[in-house]
Design brief:
This is GDSL-like lipase/acylhydrolase. The protein has about 325 residues and is of the alpha/beta class. About 45% of the residues lie in helices and about 10% in strands.
């Protein structure tokens, strides 16, 4: 299958429609979402990496062309979460590290996502600076204290209870860790895929539980997409031809299966929680396999240097 891309608008409309249905089903319309707190990697980063020393930045052309300038988002314009937040009437949640993210602004939510970040703290080391999930939760804990100082403990807990928490990690733990080339190979790269995924899941369980302890109740957990279809993986595996690379996609599916089971367990174990499992893998797979039903398509050719760009400047 040749690789195609669709207009950003059509992709966002499809993903937004699906996620909105999920949210509407799980989070009854009787709930008023008061704020949005976002945790993740480059898929959701809105500029945090602009404020750290990192090779993973989107503060240059062609990023942000829909905004008229780069914003730190790794896309033309809005992220999927941006669209959902606008629909909820919250506007764009600001990056945590922005000096303007203070005062009453934080009562509408904060974005902690960081490009190259992962579940495991070693993930993304080849990009130098990044804010992995543990550190993002630390940052949220700081925000929580700031919220308490403004509206008190009772008000803060009520706000967090009625807030949307979006969490999207895992891709970089494969791309920039388990599968990453380099002279220094950590011990877990010698593990079987099953053992490595088990470490990811056990670590993620602790992290989500900590987020719950800090007040998160309505939590959307987004799985890993078909990473074997991205330009870098295809360039590294030219013998795959026009098809996606099987092994990275196998890793993603292995993780997603266990992630879905984990979400089911957390629904039971964390009393008072409301979880949504966001299936990005099959949404994107459907877009790639059935591109014609989504509208205008174009043929996209990838050159070998794109992979080097991915590992050096993503």
């Amino acid at each position: 299958m040749s690789l195609y891309y669709l207009s950003t608008k059509l992709i966002f409309e499809n993903m937004f429609r699906i996620f909105t249905l999920l949210l509407s089903f799980k989070f009854s319309i009787s709930y008023k979402i008061q704020a949005s707190f976002v945790f993740g990697d480059s898929l959701l980063d809105v500029g945090n990496n602009n404020y750290i020393t990192s090779l993973a930045k989107a503060n240059h052309h062609p990023y942000g062309i829909d905004f008229g300038k780069p914003t730190g988002r790794f896309c033309n314009g809005r992220t999927v979460v941006d669209v959902i937040e606008q629909h909820l009437g919250l506007g764009y949640t600001p990056p945590y590290l922005s000096p303007n993210t203070c005062g009453s602004v934080i009562l509408k939510g904060v974005n902690y996502a960081s490009a190259a970040a992962g579940i495991l703290n070693y993930t993304g080391h080849i990009f130098v600076g990044r804010i992995n999930f543990d550190a993002q939760i630390d940052n949220f804990a700081n925000t929580r204290e700031d919220i308490i100082s403004k509206i008190g403990v009772r008000g803060a807990l009520k706000l967090l209870k009625n807030s949307l928490f979006t969490v999207a990690f895992g891709s970089n733990d494969f791309l920039d860790n388990y599968l990453a080339p380099g002279p220094s190979i950590p011990e877990w790269q010698l593990l079987s895929p099953e053992s490595f995924v088990a470490i990811m899941i056990s670590t993620f369980r602790v992290q989500i539980t900590r987020l719950f302890t800090l007040g998160a109740r309505k939590i959307v957990v987004i799985n890993v997409g078909p990473i074997g279809c991205i330009p870098c993986m295809r360039d590294l595996n030219p013998f795959s031809g026009d098809k996606c690379v099987k092994f990275p996609n196998h890793l993603a599916q292995l993780f997603n299966t266990q992630l879905k089971n984990l979400v089911e367990e957390l629904r039971t174990d964390l009393k008072g929680s409301l979880f949504v499992y966001g299936d990005a893998y099959h949404i994107m797979e459907d877009i790639m396999m059935n591109y014609s039903k989504y509208g205008r398509v174009k043929f996209l050719i990838f050159f070998p240097f794109i992979c080097l760009w991915r590992f050096l400047f993503y």
